[in-house]
C-alpha cells in the first residue's frame, strides 16, 4: 500500500513539474489566450478574492457582426452593472439613480480578458512555463506560470481551458509564493448562442444622472507630465484627462503596463485647505503611493510591489507641453 501511495505521489509531482516554454511557443500560446477572451461567446459566474474579501460576479460576453459586447453584474454588495459595447462603457448605480459613461475607454482589462493585445512586452518581463493540467469548473485546463524576471512585479498562475484557450482562473503570486489575489470561474459556458437581451441593463435606473460623460483617452494625449525613471519593462499605454465623482476639475491620468498589470498615475492640483496625502498603503496585491510635488498631488496605484509604485511616483516630472 505504501508503495502505491509513493508511486502516486511521484507521478503527481512529475505531472506538476514546470516545463519552460520557448519564446515562439510562449507568444503563440499567449496570443491564443488573449484572442479567446475577445472572440468567443461565453457566460458564467466568477469570484474575485483579495485577502479575506470575496466578491461574486456574473458575466455575459457576446461577439456578433456589430462587434464585441459584454455585461458584468455584481452579485454581492450594492447592485452594479457594467455594459460594454465596443469601446464605450456604461456603469449603472441604481442606489444612486445614476449612470457613468466612458466613450473611447482605454487601459481597462478585466477577467477573463487580462492579457494585452501587444504581448511582446509580457514575454520580455516574465519567464513562461507550463505546469501540468487540472480540472476546473468542469473543464480540463492547462496551467501556465509567469515568473517575474525582477522584483518590480508579481508572479502569475493561469488556468486555461485546453479546448478553447479561454482563461478560467488567474492567481497573482507574491515573492513569498503566496496568493495575494485571484479570479476564478465557478461556472462557465463556453460557446453557443447568447440572447442579446441578456446584455441589456436590468437594474432600475430611471432618468439617471450622468456622472461622467467625457471622452476618455483621445481628448488629451500630451499633458506634459511624464515618469523620468520607469521600472524595467514598463511602458506608457495611455494618457488622458478624466472627471471623477466629487471633483469639479479634471485629473490627469497616465497608465503604464508591463504587459499584464497596469499602474495608474493620477496628478491633480492640491486644493486650498486640503491636506495632501503622503505615504504608502496596501490592500492585497494593490499598493498605493501618494506624495505632494510642488502644488500637485501625485497618486500612484498598481497591482505591483510597493517598490514599483514608489519609484514611479518619485520620478513624476512635468516637462511642459510640446
How would you concisely characterize the structure shown here?
The relative contact order is 0.15.
Topology, element by element:
Elements: H1 2-16, E1 19-20, H2 23-39, E2 42-50, E3 53-64, E4 67-74, E5 81-85, E6 88-93, E7 98-102, H3 120-125, E8 126-136, E9 139-148, E10 155-161, E11 167-173, E12 179-190, E13 209-210, E14 225-227, E15 235-242, E16 251-257, E17 262-269, E18 279-283, E19 286-293, E20 296-302, H4 306-314, E21 316-318
Parallel strand pairs: 7-13
Antiparallel strand pairs: 1-8, 2-3, 2-12, 3-4, 4-5, 5-6, 6-7, 8-9, 9-10, 10-11, 11-12, 14-21, 15-16, 16-17, 17-20, 18-19, 19-20
**Largest beta sheet: what is the strand line-up?**
1-8-9-10-11-12-2-3-4-5-6-7-13
How many distinct folded domains? 2
Total DSSP helices: 4
β-sheet strand percentage: over 45%
Report the CATH superfamily of the largest domain: Lipoprotein localisation LolA/LolB/LppX
Order of helical and strand elements: HEHEEEEEEHEEEEEEEEEEEEEHE
Termini Cα gap: 75 Å
Total number of beta strands: 21
The biggest sheet amounts to: 13 strands, mixed
- CATH names the topology of the largest domain as outer membrane lipoprotein receptor (LolB), chain A
Residue runs with pLDDT of under 50 for 5 or more positions: 1-16
**Backbone structural class:** mainly beta
Q: Categorize the overall geometry.
A: globular
> What would you say the CATH architecture of the largest domain is?
Clam
**CATH class descriptor name of the largest domain:** Mainly Beta
**Mean pLDDT, rounded to whole units?**
85
* Rg measurement, Å: 21 Å
Amino acid at each position: 500500500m505504501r508503495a502505491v501511495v509513493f508511486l502516486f505521489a511521484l507521478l503527481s509531482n512529475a505531472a506538476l513539474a514546470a516545463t519552460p516554454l520557448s519564446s515562439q511557443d510562449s507568444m503563440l500560446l499567449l496570443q491564443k489566450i488573449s484572442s479567446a477572451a475577445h472572440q468567443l461567446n461565453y457566460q458564467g459566474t466568477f469570484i474575485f478574492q483579495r485577502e479575506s474579501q470575496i466578491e461574486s460576479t456574473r458575466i455575459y460576453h457576446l461577439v456578433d457582426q456589430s462587434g464585441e459586447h459584454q455585461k458584468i453584474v455584481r452579485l454581492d454588495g450594492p447592485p452594479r452593472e457594467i455594459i460594454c459595447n465596443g469601446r464605450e462603457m456604461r456603469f449603472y448605480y441604481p442606489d444612486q439613480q445614476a449612470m457613468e459613461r466612458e466613450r473611447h475607454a482605454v487601459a481597462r482589462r478585466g477577467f477573463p480578458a487580462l492579457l494585452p493585445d501587444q504581448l511582446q512586452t509580457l514575454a520580455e518581463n516574465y519567464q513562461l512555463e507550463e505546469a501540468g493540467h487540472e480540472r476546473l469548473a468542469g473543464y480540463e485546463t492547462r496551467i501556465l506560470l509567469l515568473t517575474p524576471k525582477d522584483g518590480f512585479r508579481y508572479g502569475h498562475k493561469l488556468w486555461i481551458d485546453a479546448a478553447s484557450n479561454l482563461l478560467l482562473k488567474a492567481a497573482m503570486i507574491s515573492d513569498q509564493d503566496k496568493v495575494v489575489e485571484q479570479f476564478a470561474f465557478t461556472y462557465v459556458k463556453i460557446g453557443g448562442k447568447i440572447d442579446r437581451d441578456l446584455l441589456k441593463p436590468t437594474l432600475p435606473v430611471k432618468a439617471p444622472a450622468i456622472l461622467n460623460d467625457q471622452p476618455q483617452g483621445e481628448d488629451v494625449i500630451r499633458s506634459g507630465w511624464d515618469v523620468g525613471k520607469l521600472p524595467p519593462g514598463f511602458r506608457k499605454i495611455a494618457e488622458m484627462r478624466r472627471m471623477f465623482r466629487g471633483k469639479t476639475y479634471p485629473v490627469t491620468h497616465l497608465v503604464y503596463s508591463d504587459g499584464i498589470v497596469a499602474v495608474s498615475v493620477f496628478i491633480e492640483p492640491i486644493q486650498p485647505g486640503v491636506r495632501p496625502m503622503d505615504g504608502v498603503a496596501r490592500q492585497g496585491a494593490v499598493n498605493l503611493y501618494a506624495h505632494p510635488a510642488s502644488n500637485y498631488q501625485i497618486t500612484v496605484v498598481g497591482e505591483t510591489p510597493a517598490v514599483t509604485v514608489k519609484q514611479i511616483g518619485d520620478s513624476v516630472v512635468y516637462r511642459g507641453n510640446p
